[in-house]
Write a structure and sequence with these properties.
By secondary structure, this protein is mostly beta strands. Helix content is 4%, strand content 35%. It contains 3 helices and 28 strands.
Length: 441
Amino acid sequence: MNLSKQAAGWCCVAVSILALASCTAEPVNPDDNDAAATINGNDGTAETSSEQPDIGIGDNSAAVCDDAATHDAELGLRPDVQPSGNRVVPGRLEIEFDQPTVVELPERPQWIVSAPNSNADDSGAPKWFVVLETGAVVSVDHHGRVDRLELPIVEWTPQATTANSETPLVDVGAARAAFTDALVDTRVVHSGRWTAALTQPTDRYGHGVLGDKLEAGAIELIDRCSNERIVIDVERPDVIEGLAPLLIDPNLSPTDDVLVLVTVSNAETGARLVVFDLTGAIVAESAPIGTGNRWRNQLAAGPIGPGGSFAVVDVRTPHIGGTVQWFSVDLTNKRLDLVAASEASFTTHVIGSRNLDLGVAVDVDGDGRPEVVVPSAQRDQLFALRPTEAGSDGTLGVLGADVVQTMDLDGRMVTNLGVGGTDSSVSLAVGTDDNRLLIFD
């Protein structure tokens, strides 16, 4: 196994505490053909190392491990759904699609993030920060009041995230720079003590639908308490076609045991979902789509399958007749089995965009089971979907999907599906091509 020692160089423009940071990486060299990468080392384990640059917590690891929220804010990790990269919102909630708050924006929006609103009369409702097409940023409170922030107009990418109400937008470049040869657009995620990102950029698969033709050749995980590093390579001709791993625990146990879910693709069979353990072994995977240049956008994992079972959800081929799919996780037989799928066309991505956040799993009807909320293929409607119930004979087969709620946007969705709020009250927000922000709560 090869562990690249070349780290991407970063240049960050520092601005005031309320500023949006713009970070760009020096070009990275795609891998050459000197040696084939492997999923596991010769001894069947992933490569580990503690000799890389410190992630910045070595002198205070115990405090950081006990105070993950503080560390998340320091690294700029995503708090809008889950820092693990999982876009499932826990809890029993209700969201009404038929009466959104409609906010007129000064120009076309690009990206939405949230932060807690400090106004007591808003009962925990989030404040929204909207990055506009020119790079300007406005804040929108729960009453729909729009305030333009005095920030420099800078080049912006959808790596900005919310830290808190005082620092609305921070760039994740500092967190990304802790990894060896990180993908320039990877997002850093974490669960428990483990922080992870996609690394080892490669051009060996030229699909190029996520903004450039460089994909990841490896996953790197860092133990935030000990700085131990684990690198999981994927075999040629495979690549990891995504922006971040998704850290999951199918057993829903309160431990630091995590599994790593990614979308693995190649030019022959296209994309499949693969789950690795921390040794680098494949512990479950789906069937591949079957042809090259066909992608899956992994979305969420949790008790969101038929009957509240644990399932992994993706959108298969979101650019061409996308279908929402639910997979059960069979660790005994090392399979992700398709258990339910929608029939209609949905999407969670636009070709060439780095915005992979057009969907979310959240309880919209108050029954305690999250539905999958995604836009139509034309991005002019939002749908909340759940698997159909099993037949009276108890057999499952591959189930269909029922529409729980739907909403006409009266425009085309051009942003991510923003999520904000508290454990007991969640709001969703969408920006449209006619300069509007729609808030659902």
